[in-house]
Amino acid sequence: MSISLINVVKYYKDLPHQVKALQRLQEQIAAVRPDLLADHSEFLRIWRKPAQAKKVTQKSKQGKAVKPKNIAGQMAALSQGVVSTVNYSTPSAAPATTPASPPAPPSYVKPDGSVKLDVPFLSQLDNENNPYGSCNVTCVSMCMAYFGHPTKNSSGQQLEDELYQFMLDRGLSRHSPQDLQKLLQLYGYQDDFQADAKWDEVKAWLRQGKPIITHGWFTSSGHIVVILGYNDRGWIINDPYGHWSRSGYDTYASGAGVVYSYADMRDVCGPDGDLWIHYVDGKPGQVPPLPKGATVSGQTGSSSTTSSSAQAALKLQDILTQNKTLTLAQAAKQHALIKQIQVRLRVLKVLHDTADGLYGPKTKAAIVRFAKAFDLPLDRITPQFAKKLVEAQEVPGLSDVSQWIDPEVAARIMGASLDDVNTYLPPLIQGLEERGILNKQTLIAALATISVETAGFRPINEWGGDDYFRQMYEGRDDLGNIYPGDGVRFHGRGFIQITGRANYHHYGEKLGVDLENNPELALDPDIASRILIEYFWERSVDQRAVENDWQGVRRAVNGGLNGWDHFWPVVQDFQKAMN
Q1: Looking at domain 403-578, which of 3.30.2350.10, 1.10.540.10, 1.20.1290.10, 1.10.530.10 is its CATH number?
Q2: Contact (CB, 8 A) for 316 and 341
């Protein structure tokens, strides 16, 4: 339906409507179509035309008849005032101008019909948190970076690692599309997740300048990528794990802007109606970045600074594909490269320190240690070094972690029997390794915590009898003890003395063990170790240990400094023994 503005003016003229309404109408016209108020426009000619006075009378509030005010005159005066504030020019040679068309919105479709958004590429392989299982948060990070979100926070942490920890802290699963949607929304961005999307809808979304996150069976366990465009060969992808093909992944190759065929993506991700798609958008009111070369209001579209920085940062893949060799001094200046090396060395258990991108004695020693294991030059980063570091699953000749501490020394420090140390230390070390948090500081934190909580090295029942447990825990809603007998049944057990039905249920679900119906399983050496490790992970106890925040470690476990006089000397003794 359309309405003639001229008819609108005719309707308003000479009728006693409120002047404010007329002024509001003119303000709106001036804002969106100032050409209609040009000196010679037909619209304004009708607007200003003197009107024939109509014999209409009104009654005032006092009931006396009054003549209507000259609305036409008011409108003419108003129009003069509004027009005088509008800055436009009319060519002197012509009595009238053709109204200028509003600028067309920028097109993300190139002349050849393709679309390729400038989505910054991020690799999951340099993530500190779970580099082989964090494709999800890495893809979310790429989309957020496209809309201008910093790729590092104020403390220098990568956005991918920040999001990984953010989800853990809030009980969100990286493997749930609904939780990924919630993650974007919690950061203020928009995500319309559809489990039954169609490929044509994906193209339509990309043509609006907005990226896509999709899931597919690129690996046996599934994988997530960003779709940033399409061309005549297929979909243009940012793949955080590398370059995929039917034969598998080439993790040495960059996954930035790779093209996967339409047929492959349909087979791997699903056909129309069976396709998981996240339609990602900016924050409310935010428009997508301009395409390259587009100009609106004096702004020229180009790759974002984040994108340029990300592409300029040297990575192991660049060392390999470009056949580069760097001295260790040169490599030390490449923080992204050093962090990627640190992450890989941590995964391989060669480095037991944080991956912060800073080159120091510990990082140098780990690089040299790795190079020695594979007979590589010790003073440089070569393509062969890069290839082996990305490829290696283990390091030959690597000293066993058990050599960090002699069992007899551990038994003496903890006041435990040697048999208990030999029984319970191996599953603890194995669990820390599997969780990716094995380093000397975290091991010391675990051993000192066990020493305080058990007065030795054995998972134990909490001291006290049934009367004590009933008095302390029966009917405690905060512990989930909602049934008679829960106080006794769910008293403290294990290395960290988990207490209450809710905690037994929580850690049982985390470990895949029915602790709620079998609470005594918390005394099993393997399960007791895994509970402690999950407890450390959930509360970032390992991070506090790495930062040598030992009071923070104790508070995270105990809620205060209870037992500090026991805990701190044990920590100091283990530090001396391991160093």
Answers
A1: 1.10.530.10
A2: yes
Local structure of 326: helix, strand or coil? strand
Q: What is the mean pLDDT of the chain?
A: 82
Percent of the chain with pLDDT strictly greater than 70:
78
Both structure tokens of 336 = 């992204």
**Predicted confidence (pLDDT) per residue in 261-286, tens digit:** 999 999 999 999 999 999 999 999 88
Q: Which H or E element spans position 367?
A: helix 361-373
Alpha-carbon span 120 to 118, nearest angstrom = 6
Q: Residue 545 pLDDT more than 70?
A: yes
Pairs from 309-312 (Cβ < 8 Å, separation ≥ 24) = 309/151, 310/120, 310/121, 310/122, 310/145, 310/151, 311/120, 311/121, 311/256
Burial pattern 105-141, b for ≥16 Cβ within 10 A else e, equals ebebeeeeeebbbbbbbbbbbbbbbbbeebbbbbbbb
Which architecture, in CATH terms, is 115-287? Answer: Alpha-Beta Complex (3.90)
Say what the pTM is. Answer: 0.46
Tens-digit pLDDT profile for residues 547-570: 899 999 999 988 888 899 999 999
Query: Three-state SS for 507?
Result: helix
Backbone angles phi, psi at 404, to 5 degrees: -60, -35
